Amino acid sequence: MSFTLLKRGLRPNRPPAPMWREHPLQDHYDVVIIGGGAHGLATAYYLATVHGITDVAVLEKRYIGSGASGRNTAILRSNYLTPEGILFYDESIKLYENLASELDFNVMFSQRGHLTLAHTDSSMRTMQWRAEVNQIQNVDSRVISPAEVKKLVPFIDTSDRPRYPIMGALYHPPGGVIRHDAVVWGYARAADAKGVHIHQQTEVTGIDVEHNRVVAVQTNRGRIATGTVLNATAGWCSLIAAMAGVRLPVETRPLQACVTEPLKPFLDTVIVSGTFHFYLSQSDRGELVMGASVNPFASYSTDATLDFAEALAGHVLELFPSLAKVRLLRHWAGLCDMTPDFSPIMGTTPVDGFLVDVGWGTYGFKAAPVSGKRMAELIATNRTPELIAPFAYDRFFTGQIVGEKGAAAVTN
Questions:
Q1: 321, 338, 355 - which closes a domain
Q2: Does residue 412 have a pLDDT over 60?
């Protein structure tokens, strides 16, 4: 249990200490991590705590959590389709369950359950398929009836009035939501306490490679000599990789989301509909957090669009007509790096010392703890952990893809 809040209450006039420190940029680090989001910070944390490697720099071109980690809708689940994906995300959920205690920081994890609605016969077959694969991997996931959906979500319309009535759902009790900012801050605070240097406003401008090996990273603040570089960026991963001469099979697309004005609590579970292309949850402040699929075109734009808001509102009202008068409060977009098989790229590359933890699409935040832990293991031991081996860079050349599109629903 954390006593931080109690201590501050007893000393109200004392300003809180910074969550992490500022350091001069050294001209050498053993490990340089590009990207100050949840994945990069988690890797730095596990390098320091599990493997004792503390000569680590985390470089962020803006501020910590300013990228995908701060723009996602923070839904967590492990009910994927492939055995490789299920095992991977299930370990992440287990790490998230103990993260607040481990970091001594409240990450506001709420395992409220996750419902993936089915509106057609083919969707029902897919849900049954996913449930069976999940159960084989000992993940709590099962198909439920419209009556059970109604019991879990009383305000949803389970009648035959919607254009696509609800025929059932895949129910995943361990799924839920978490506070994304708290995860980022918790990892940054804990990594800093172990000696990791976190450098904000530090943009990578180049990566020096000699004899097919990384030797340095160029930044807007100077050159850093290093033998190990991890690309843990989202939205810009292909551009960073190109600096090292590595080409990634990644396409970057915007993903939009929005929140409504606060309402009294009425929605306990996370709702996803692949047919209507939306997902919906309610925050602790009462806001409805909503999103849909990625934009149908590649772009680096983070502008929100009116057609997205109109389409999303129409889809939500199909199943929640009582929300017709609710007002939108905020609307934003983030960038997603999509791979051909909807799975990430993790591990080594053809350039020695240049590693990647990229291509997460819309799944990245769910996997931050397990990705950080396993990438740290790879860096420390120079051996690829079995759990991330299926997501290797070379799978696109050998044909051993890990197709997760069937579990994407609306790719949330």
A1: 338
A2: no
